Amino acid sequence: MSAALDHRPAETHQHTHGPGCGHDAVLHGDHVDYLHDGHVHREHRTPEGVHYDECDACTCADCSDNCAVCSCDDCSCPTCNHATCQCSGCSDSCQNCTCADCSCPTCTHAA
């Protein structure tokens, strides 16, 4: 990930996202996203402290949703939660796939 291109700080918060903060939490790959007034925020820790960034947007041509909540039927975005592994013996989502010999182009661990 290129920090210069993908680092998109969210608006200033009056609280810290977490259990009981009042915003829905969605597991997205290796982090938790918080659904916040039409935005999807993920925690970003730096040596200077913690702030929140806008999380990934779906890269499908006809989608304008965030990857944590995208519901495209034909999604091919590699960072969306629901993209399904395309290996013949797997039916897990790409975010959860653990196939040792995975050849799926959208799985996060595929070589």
Structure description:
- With 111 residues, this protein is mainly beta.
- It has a domain at 3-54.
- It contains 1 helix and 4 strands.
- The protein has one helix at 3-6, and strands at 25-28, 31-36, 39-46, 49-54.
- Strands 1-2-3-4 form a 4-stranded antiparallel beta sheet, with no helix packed on it.
- This is Metallothionein.
- It comes from Allokutzneria albata.
Task: Offer a quick outline of the entry.
The chain is mainly β and about 110 residues long.
Structural key phrases:
4 strands; single chain; disordered N terminus; mainly beta; 22% strand; Metallothionein; 111 residues; four-stranded antiparallel beta sheet; 4% helix
Gyration radius from CA atoms, angstroms: 15 Å
| SSE series | HEEEE
**Helical percent range?**
under 10%
**Widest sheet: strand ordering:** 1-2-3-4
User: Main beta sheet, described?
Assistant: 4 strands, antiparallel
Helix count, DSSP H or I runs of 4 or more residues: 1
Count of β-strands: 4
Low-pLDDT runs of 5+ residues are 1-5
Rounded mean pLDDT is: 74
Give the class from helix and strand content and strand pairing.
Answer: mainly beta
Strand content: 15-25%
Distance between the termini: 16 Å
**Shape annotation:** globular
Organism: Allokutzneria albata
Protein name: Metallothionein
Record the SSE blueprint:
Blueprint: H1 3-6, E1 25-28, E2 31-36, E3 39-46, E4 49-54
Antiparallel strand pairs: 1-2, 2-3, 3-4
